[in-house]
Amino acid sequence: MLDIIKNKLIVSCQALEDEPLHSSFIMGRMANAAKEGGAVAIRAQGVDDIIEIKKVTSLPVIGIIKRNYDDSEIYITPTKKEIDELLESGCEMIALDATNRKRPNDESLQELISYIKSKGILVMADISNYEEAIISAKLGVDCVSTTLAGYTSYTECLEGPNLELIKMLVKDLDIPVIAEGKINTPEDLKNVYEAGVYSAVVGSAITRPQLITKKFVNAIEI
Ligand SMILES: CC(=O)N[C@H](C=O)[C@@H](O)[C@H](O)[C@H](O)COP(=O)(O)O
Questions:
Q1: pTM over cut 0.80
Q2: Nearest-angstrom CA–CA distance, 26 and 155
Q3: How far is 126 from 98, CA to CA, in rounded Å?
Q4: Closest by alpha carbon to 164, among 144, 140, 191?
Q5: How confident is the model over 117-169, as pLDDT tens digits?
Q6: Is residue 179 helix, strand or coil?
Q7: 119: which DSSP letter?
Q8: Beta-bridge mates of residue 62
Q9: Ligand 1: which residue has its CA nearest to atom 15?
Q10: Contact, 195 vs 164, CB < 8 A?
Q11: Could you tell me the residue range of the domain that residue 93 belongs to?
């Protein structure tokens, strides 16, 4: 899968229960549209969506499960339970929150990474800053993604991708660095590639029409 995604586009097709497009059928069609447009892999949430997307597109999938726990802020593949569910989905890679925050059930990042790897599945570490990426690489993940930069209390929320962070990661890590989060335009995508990333994930700008519509509406509201 790492060979397939190199220098190409991954599209995230996700719609949670509170989003208008929440439906495995629709996510499958979204993924098919992304494939037709040239995406080589899909990032998807939930077992039903992953199964549908794989059935419709045959593309490799980065699987996650978003679930909230009372004792932690972590919600992207937070525990071994979600990993076990994803292992049944057929996804090629599992992404999990690799931030330096307390995990639910006091599980450790190391044990979760080792567990996924023991099943022969690739691991993507969703990080929010430089230190988390370095630690994840040492723990043996296959790639890091900037998914959570700007989404933790200790990272700055920017309008677009965090190019400074990306450049530092590309310079210091010897595993693939994936740009993800707030790649809002083709220009943003060109910029992250010029910063040296291995691959990139685009989500909302392609697959969340409610947010795309809002941008247009905002442009005419003073
Ligand atoms: C922070 C968080 O929960 N990110 C999620 C991670 O899977 C998704 O909601 C994002 O759509 C995805 O990361 C792609 O980013 P963007 O939609 O900005 O292109």
A1: yes
A2: 33
A3: 5
A4: 191
A5: 999 999 999 999 999 999 999 999 999 999 999 999 999 999 999 999 999 99
A6: strand
A7: T
A8: 43, 93
A9: 181
A10: no
A11: 2-220
Q: What is the domain count for the chain? A: 1
Q: What angle do CA 52, 55, 59 make, to 5 degrees?
A: 100
Q: Indicate which CATH number applies to the domain containing 213.
A: 3.20.20.70
**Both structure tokens of 104:** 């639910």
CB within 8 Å of 76: residues ≥ 6 apart: 64, 65, 66, 95, 96, 97, 126, 147, 148
Taking the C-alpha atoms of residue 143 and residue 136, their distance in angstroms, rounded to an integer, is: 9
pLDDT digits (tens, 9 = 90+) for 156-206: 999 999 999 999 999 999 999 999 999 999 999 999 999 999 999 999 999
Measured from the Cα of 205, ligand 1's closest atom is 19
| Pocket perturbation via mutation, ligand 1, pick of 12, 13, 43, 158 by most ligand atoms within 8 A of CB | 12
| Ligand 1: nearest atom to the Cα of 201 | 14
